[in-house]
User: Fold this.
Amino acid sequence: MKVNITETVLRDANQSLIATRLPFSDFEGILETLDNAGYYSLECWGGATFDSCLRYLNEDPWERLRKIKAKCPKTPLQMLLRGQNILGYKHYPDDVVRLFVRKSAENGMDIFRIFDALNDFRNIQVAVDEVLKCGKHAQGCICYTTSPVHTLEKYAQMGKELEDMGVHSICIKDMAGIMGPDEAYKLIKALKSSTKLPVFLHTHATTGLGPMTYLKAVEAGCDGIDCAISQFSGGTAQPATETMKYALEQLGYETTLDSKKLKEINDFFAPVKAKFLESGGLDPYVMGTKTDALVYQVPGGMLSNLVAQLKAQNAYDRLDEVLAEVPNVRKDLGYPPLVTPISQMVGVQATANVLAGERYKNVSKEVKAYLKGEYGKAPGEVNQDLVKKVWGDEEIITCRFADTLKPQFEDAKKELGKIARSDEDVLSWIAFPTNAEKFFEYREEQESNTVNYTIEKKED
Ligand code: CO
Assistant:
């Protein structure tokens, strides 16, 4: 049996270990080798890469995608798309979502992994539909979490819903790395029997469960797993590509990966990693195994946010109380998966509840919007007393939130005028206005510098 392996070094490992600060120039030289190594796909775009290109790296994310595609024509490129949120944290109107998908496809994207933080599939259906219209691979994603309402039957039913939507494959996204081998085995079995689709598993090595979880998933018939080349593997990133290949092949599975090429790729990233370690961009702390998530049932990233938040408020000694409050807030919100941005919302609210000495004395803007239904439908029952407390008799949104939004693209294009050189620029601006403007200015400046330089040379 063949196991498909996706390489995440350019996206998730980059995002999880070095806060997505890898510039194109740091990996340009290895793209051809990556293309020839036998990967099922290269996850290289989406998630935080888009924002990070504009915000920190002065790169045009679209140009990055085109340049990757030019050097990797054979291996499908893969991205992570937050459904109706595209790559941000709020809901965008359908015209923006559709054009974003179309432009991504035109610029080289092949596989679109699409998720909604609440697993409210109304929030991914437009993106999925547009991917299908573009003739590209739509992968429907289920965010994994544990709660009294997240039963195997429920997950199997989600798989069925995705299949009915027309997706080509399903991915179970264990963003916190909390899925154990037994859960993986049962979950993959359940999805393989409720659907006819290939099922992929995405996890993180944070708690150390990753490789065991992958192995049991494969035994249950999992079609593909996400790994990171060993220099950028482990800790908050994915389990190592070479390690998984070795173990799987020893057990008689086929991976299509070329060991020599993997070695080349890994050697290439050794000095890159060293550079980030030296600059402090890579904190060795994130590379370790952290089992606290198994005790607290709180994802690693959320835990470090909580710690930082409490330290900033001189209340680190209240950590245990806050951790005890997290499950209560989560229950009140109907057991949402603890994925960005909901993990932060739950964390902030739990902290506020503890520090104020009164539950929901202060309710954040985001939690208010959540209670109003702006994020979609919660997996379980939302605490109605809390909804009443915050919204009184105001009407709660039960429709797909994007149905309440007006088209935005044409107006944005007009507003930007000449600053935008392409529809892609307009989309960058809609997604991240401040950082896109900053980048447009930088680009303008760079080009005028280049012209001056040429003129000076001529005068010599
Ligand atoms: Co991930």
